[in-house]
UniProtKB/TrEMBL annotation:
PROSITE patterns: ADENYLATE_KINASE
Gene behind this protein: adk
EC number per UniProt: 2.7.4.3
Quaternary assembly: Monomer.
Single biological process term from Gene Ontology: AMP salvage
InterPro entries assigned: Adenyl_kin_sub, Adenylat/UMP-CMP_kin, Adenylat_kinase_CS, ADK_active_lid_dom_sf, P-loop_NTPase
Species of the source: Streptococcus massiliensis
Subcellular location: Cytoplasm
A cellular component term, taken from the record's GO annotations: cytoplasm
Protein task: Catalyzes the reversible transfer of the terminal phosphate group between ATP and AMP. Plays an important role in cellular energy homeostasis and in adenine nucleotide metabolism.
Region (NMP): 30-59
This protein's UniProt keywords: ATP-binding, Cytoplasm, Kinase, Nucleotide biosynthesis, Nucleotide-binding, Transferase
Chemical reaction(s) catalysed: AMP + ATP = 2 ADP
Name listed for the protein in its UniProt record: Adenylate kinase
Source domain of life: Bacteria
Length: 213
């Protein structure tokens, strides 16, 4: 089974990816893992990626696409199938993936799209606060400090501030929508309601994937 998983930051994509890989015994291909492995193994594309990363530059699409192609060409994929996680991030990468799969004789069988309302993701992602003295982490809604706490004793990292989180979500929505539509036109997208308990989300995914097998 060859799959792609998509979802906005905070939608629980990583959690569900781990559950899918364990339940269906397929190779989990995440962008970060791929880059680390390619650089550690000093593959042609790994060395090229390293040359950009070491200079603090963004890795160009053609290198990222090349690293994905190297990984998908490995023997374990033909035996088990794969779950791509974190790629493609742009519509250009989606087109490159189509070409790579065709060249390798592989076929994408499903796209799991975990849908969560962006406003609830904003609350989920921007609620983290950190105690100034102890460094202990809390969440304003899901794990608040005990009693009537003094907000002056806590701070938020730049990444957790609502305006930063909203910008990140907006960028992800703008980049992700054309990719979803690209695969929806191919009849591959399965929308999963992500605003429910983790096990309930996975139960919905499991039903979809069992029917695909």
């Amino acid at each position: 089974m060859n799959l792609l998983i998509m979802g906005l930051p905070g939608a629980g994509k990583g959690t569900q990816a781990a559950k899918i890989v364990e339940a269906f015994q397929i190779a989990h291909i995440s962008t970060g893992d791929m880059f680390r492995a390619a650089m550690a193994n000093e593959t042609e594309m790994g060395l090229l990626a390293k040359s950009y990363i070491s200079k603090g530059e963004l890795v160009p699409d053609e290198v990222t696409n090349g690293i994905v192609k190297e990984r998908l060409a490995q023997d374990d994929i033909k035996g088990t199938g794969f779950l791509l996680d974190g790629y493609p991030r742009t519509i250009e990468q989606a087109h490159a993936l189509d070409a790579t799969l065709a060249e390798l004789g592989l076929k994408l069988e499903g796209v799991i799209n975990i849908k969560v309302d962006p406003s609830s993701l904003l609350e989920r992602l921007s609620g983290r606060i950190i105690h100034k003295k102890t460094g202990e982490t809390f969440h304003k809604v899901f794990n608040p400090p005990a009693g009537d706490y003094n907000e002056d004793d806590y701070y938020q990292r730049e990444d957790d501030k609502p305006e930063t989180v909203k910008r990140r979500l907006d960028v992800n929505i703008a980049q992700g929508e054309p990719i979803i539509e690209h695969y929806r036109a191919q009849g591959l997208v399965h929308d999963i309601e992500g605003n429910q308990a983790i096990d309930a989300v996975f139960a919905d995914i499991e039903k979809v994937l069992t029917n695909l097998k």
